[in-house]
Amino acid sequence: MSKYTTGEIAKLCGVSVRTVQYYDSRKILVPSELSEGGRRIYSEEDLQKMKTICFLREIGLSINSIGELLSEEDPGSVISLLLEQQKQMLRKEINERQIKLNMLEQIKRELKDIDNFSVESISDIAHIMENKKKLSKLRWVLITVGIIMDIIEIATAILWINSGIWWPFAVGMCIVVALGVWISMYYFKRVAYICPQCHAVFKPSFKEAFFAYHTPRTRKLTCPKCGHKGHCVETYGEEVGAK
Predict the structure, then answer these.
(1) Among 82, 97, 129, 240, which one is least packed by beta carbons within 10 Å?
(2) What would the DSSP string read from start to end of 9-46?
(3) Closest residue by Cα to residue 105 from 129, 89, 88
(4) How far is residue 105's CA from residue 158's CA, in Å, rounded to a whole number?
């Protein structure tokens, strides 16, 4: 069976020799034996006990609490419960850090759409992130209606080609146009745009928004507040009044 000196057990557990001596003086970690010269000798069991003490100190238990815990008839069951609590706490911490990491990645992506970064840009990004889920749902509605329009157009066109019956295609196109107008009005009523210069959140007119050059995340508009003409970042803004 392995045996350790005070210095060796301190090194294995990542603590100082004085710490090991202190635990000995508090009767928390008493060495298994003494050498003929009076040196403290620790066993493998003592080493494991020392590692347990270090862990309990790391999770915030006081020396007195550790002493009382180790004097229990069945300290293993209590320590097992503490281990489970520590595991849950670490999982929570990992989840919180992952959320923060995702936010940082999102901020980096949003910065790519801002030409002139400033302190006020952080407020713009916060607004975008806060409304991201709503905007995502709105875009899915737009995509779904678009797919329905494509199905109507393609199906009626195939019917016309194969059977020579043209009127379903004419009716279908009327429906497609009506759906296109409706979904466009529905969409632009619920989105707003952030000016990269003055950081105002505004709603353009339907005509301006509809015909403006755009990317998946921006639209080239004129800010009604500062007059800036350029790409403005799209965000959900049903609550924003038209300017």
Answers:
(1) 97
(2) HHHHHT--HHHHHHHHHTTSS--SEE-TTS-EEEEHHH
(3) 129
(4) 46
